Amino acid sequence: MARTLVLNATYEPICVVPCPRALVLVLSEKAETIASTGRMIRSERLSLEEPSVVRLARFVRVPYQRRRALNRRAVFIRDSHQCQYCGGAAESIDHVVPRSRGGKHEWDNVVAACRRCNSQKRDRLLHDTAMRLRRPPSAPHFATWFMLHDRTIPTAWTPFLQNELVRSA
Predict the structure, then answer these.
(1) Which of 5, 80, 86, 144 has its CA 20 to 30 A from that of 137?
(2) With the C-alpha atoms ordered 138, 12, 166, 4, is the resulting torsion angle positive or negative?
(3) Rounded to whole angstroms, how far apart are CA atoms 64 and 67?
(4) What secondary structure does DSSP assign to 96-135, as a single string?
(5) What's the burial of 95, exposed, middle or buried (CB within 10 Å: 0-12/13-18/19+)?
(6) For residues 162 and 101, which has the higher predicted lDDT (pLDDT)?
(7) How many distinct structural domains can be found in the chain?
(8) What is the pLDDT of residue 116?
(9) pLDDT tens across 35-45, in order?
(10) How would DSSP label each residue in 13-82?
(11) Within a domain: residue 136?
(12) Are residues 10 and 57 in the same domain?
């Protein structure tokens, strides 16, 4: 199913919704289409272009910066599917400070790892091994959540996510 980027009235990205939801927003005049995919959606009496980016007609106040739940898929995307110890292909996740040693299951303590490095580290702390992190783990940036669906950002979204992508790099 096609996805649509929803922008606030100030052109700030808010979320990604399924295309049918975006069409409902456009048809109810709560949003306007900024960019389309080029495909047509037809009904008996109406023909519309499938929206790729819509902008809300009224400003919506977003109460706080949400932190997303930690999950395996998001860790792999944040770490570019690379082991954070050796740079190889990641197949599992590892707690930098093992849970058996009091480490928490939080963004700042979880990294993608290959099986070899994960087995080699076991339940030891980093300073007890010769292993080093390629970069310290942290909560992923806002723009990462737009990539979770397809692992890519559609070209039509790029101008609206540019500031977000620059901050996450």
Answers:
(1) 5
(2) positive
(3) 9
(4) SS-GGGT--SSGGGEEEE-HHHHHHHTT--GGGSS---SS
(5) buried
(6) 101
(7) 2
(8) 96
(9) 999 999 999 99
(10) EEEEEEHHHHHHHHHTTSEEEEEEEEEEEE-SS-EEEEEEEEEESS-----S-PPPPP-HHHHHHHTTTB
(11) no
(12) yes
Q: What is the pTM of this model?
A: 0.61
How high does pLDDT run on average in the chain? 87
Cα(12)–Cα(164) distance, integer angstroms: 9
Q: Which one-letter amino acid corresponds to residue 93?
A: I
26 CB contacts (<8 Å, ≥6 apart)?
Answer: 32, 33, 48, 51, 54
Domain limits at 87?
72-128
Q: Based on the fold, state whether residues 106 and 58 are members of the same structural domain.
A: no
- One-letter amino acid at 95 equals H
Residue 28 is encoded by which pair of tokens?
């109810």
Closest CA to 16 of 86, 76, 68: 68
59 pLDDT exceeds 60? yes
Query: Would 35 be classed as within a structural domain?
Result: yes
Cα separation, 89 vs 95, in Å, equals: 17
